[in-house]
């Protein structure tokens, strides 16, 4: 029998040319909510120059820009890992420099890159995906037993949930946070859930610290700058294990739009690390050409993307990547590790990117917890008009 996933892969060839997906969607409207600030601000905030006229004024571009298809670069992290062949010497230093340059370029273009030889054991990643399949295929009532506990004091609703019916986003997720907080509600079955995930957090936290150090270097900051900025290790990350059920063609989402996996959005944190099963669907908007680029699954790799905090701290030098999960003909599972800050952290453009660079701050400062609350409210109490959801442009000057 033909594998339906292969069919999907065949369909999903590079998106150099305008396709219906590039047309205006409900999710796009949500993304460019900064329209209210005017065309230039919106363009700057969402970094979608070529797609912008289409989104805002319904102008259809006859042909795509003629330039090479943008790609998501793959960066080999082995030169940074102790005990690897490339651990020392001039060649290793050159390899580290090359990897750093590749990351620096990605931070300023799509805000997306993949990492390989990242140190997170492949069998642990595979195990997490298996557990996710096992958990999400269970009856809703059973999954709800891992639902958030009212008044737990957790910074976000930790536990199992599915997106509100009124939203076109069709996914279920299990939200988790560092185990030291005591907020996590692990499913009792499958029984290995907790053990596997707790091992995985540790590995991903190591990877996140390494990548943060590289990114700090790219920003001209001391290597441990981002890590130390959030002095509170127990609010270093959040995790979302997501299940995207098949979306039947023509199924209308909330508010009259089409159903989708996840509407185009920017992550509200520092950096996000994603791995998944072998089903495509993740796409990122290219900052220059306005093309949606597929981030196809590649076994063993981890996809990294920039979030809003880095965009603010770098005063828009780095792009909080605009990305989405499009409908797929088969179920999909992914695991996202959001490196984040404690709610009490003050976020603002850093002087290195403002006064020292002779540039005005593009954002006013805010406590991270306040922004997190706005983002959570978008989910728990979605406004009637998607453009009223609060995103980082709320703090734009
Ligand atoms: O499922 C994915 O590939 C990405 C998920 C995502 O963008 C998110 O959880 O914010
Ligand atoms: Fe995301």
From TrEMBL:
Presence of the UniProt keyword Nucleus in the record: no
Keyword set includes Nucleotide-binding: no
Protein keywords: Iron, Metal-binding, Oxidoreductase
Domain Fe2OG dioxygenase: 233-341
PROSITE patterns associated with the record: FE2OG_OXY
Biased composition (Basic and acidic residues): 1-15
GO molecular function: metal ion binding; oxidoreductase activity
SUPFAM superfamilies listed in its UniProt record: Clavaminate synthase-like (SSF51197)
A Pfam family this chain is assigned to: DIOX_N
Residue numbers spanned by region Disordered: 1-25, 378-397
Superkingdom: Eukaryota
Required cofactor names: L-ascorbate
Family the entry assigns: Belongs to the iron/ascorbate-dependent oxidoreductase family.
Name used for this protein in its record: Fe2OG dioxygenase domain-containing protein
Organism expressing this protein natively: Colocasia esculenta (Wild taro)
Lineage: Eukaryota, Viridiplantae, Streptophyta, Embryophyta, Tracheophyta
